[in-house]
Write a structure and sequence with these properties.
- This protein is of the alpha/beta class.
- It has two domains: about 240 residues, NAD(P)-binding Rossmann-like Domain (Rossmann fold, 3-Layer(aba) Sandwich), CATH 3.40.50.720; about 80 residues, TATA-Binding Protein (2-Layer Sandwich), CATH 3.30.310.
- The protein contains 13 helices and 14 strands.
- Strands 3-2-1-4-5-6-7-8 form an eight-stranded mixed beta sheet, with helices on both faces. The protein has a six-stranded antiparallel beta sheet with strand order 9-10-14-13-12-11, covered by helices on one side.
């Protein structure tokens, strides 16, 4: 029988991780003192949060704007039918579940639309930023912040059975805009609505993201994968694409020229079409203070089902649309992909 080193009782939960020589007690200590911010708590985000909380990261802030729907349950591993029935936002439902998985980890849920006005505050104090989002605008925003503040982040994306993962250490590895200077046009950018998404592909990409995160947080930055990892889960094909020359030979607007256009809000819009949802998010101008009870009373005569609300959101069915309103005045209008129609419905039922 091989000799197994003695494990400090405080690390008993992580014993199989601590005896892995690349981590050890020192790496576990570093991990327990680390602070991570996760943007997005959907398919990738739930796997990332689940893995890192089980691994013993010290603090995890989970930022997500969305609520749970039944078709999420196929791949978003932290949610179940009880969460759906409770009508909880994803960030809060994830935090509840993670607290039961590992109470030693501090998990802070933030139900919020991440944008140029709040991302610096949300990322304050973080050692690492993680991508669990589903759109290039937010990823470029994370990239701008990471490069500007010299903070590492890990990009991930999945569609169908294929996925991408890249670890970004600003001013060392290529940043996201070195590789993708601009977001692809909609006709060249399939979504989960048009191409579907398989849970095994999600799990593969998120697991690679989590592994890279553990390397960084345990002091093994020299051992990160310095390539763009491409996975085709269906054909069991994994390829490491060499991208270092994109930084060395290119003239990246972000990390070479210091142009933080996304962080400065140059591309921020008042509406966002949501991936695979037949839905539009409407962000009102200025600050709003929402009185859910007053709104619910206003909607009851026109709603086709009882209006539901709790401390986190109000939800109503009106005609063929599902309206979800959040305390910050933000709303998700489901049943249309037309931003103009969504804005019109917002004005009609919630006020301009």
């Amino acid at each position: 029988m091989p000799h197994r080193p003695a494990i400090d009782p405080q690390w008993a939960r992580y014993s199989r991780q601590v005896i892995f020589e690349k981590i050890g007690a020192e790496g576990q200590q570093r991990l327990s003192q680390s602070r991570v911010v996760l943007f997005g708590c959907g398919a990738l985000g739930t796997v990332l949060a689940n893995t890192l909380v089980r691994a013993g990261v010290g603090y995890l802030r989970v930022c997500d704007r969305d609520f749970i729907e039944r078709d999420n349950l196929q791949r978003q591993v932290l949610f179940d039918e009880d969460d759906l029935a409770a009508n909880l936002p994803k960030a809060q439902a994830a935090a509840n579940k993670l607290a039961r998985i590992n109470p030693d980890v501090t998990v802070e849920p933030v139900v919020i639309d991440v944008n140029s006005t709040n991302i610096e505050r949300l990322a304050e104090g973080a050692d690492l930023l993680l991508d669990g989002t589903d759109n290039f605008e937010t990823r470029f925003l994370i990239n701008d912040l990471a490069v500007k503040t010299h903070r590492p982040w890990i990009y991930g994306a999945v569609i169908g059975a294929t996925g991408l993962c890249m670890t970004i250490i600003p001013h060392d590895t290529p940043c996201l805009r070195c590789v993708f200077e601009d977001a692809p046009p909609p006709e060249l950018n399939p979504t989960c609505d048009t191409a579907g998404v398989l849970a095994p592909a999600v799990n593969l990409v998120a697991s690679f993201q989590a592994l890279e995160a553990i390397k960084l947080l345990t002091g093994k930055a020299a051992e990160i994968n310095r390539h763009l990892l491409q996975i085709d889960a269906w054909s069991a094909r994994v390829v490491n694409l060499k991208v270092q020359s994109a930084r060395e030979q290119g003239n990246c607007p972000c990390c070479k020229r210091g142009d933080y256009a996304y962080l400065e809000g140059c591309f921020a819009g008042s509406t966002t079409t949501l991936c695979g949802r037949d839905a539009v998010q409407v962000n009102p101008a200025g600050d709003k203070r929402i009185d859910f009870s007053a709104i619910a009373e206003k909607l009851r005569p026109v709603a086709s089902a009882p209006v539901r609300c709790n401390a986190f959101m109000l939800k109503a069915l009106v005609d063929s649309y599902e309206l979800t309103l959040f305390p910050d005045g933000r709303a998700i209008i489901k049943g249309t992909a037309d931003p103009d129609r969504a804005r019109s419905l917002y004005a009609k039922y919630f006020g301009a």
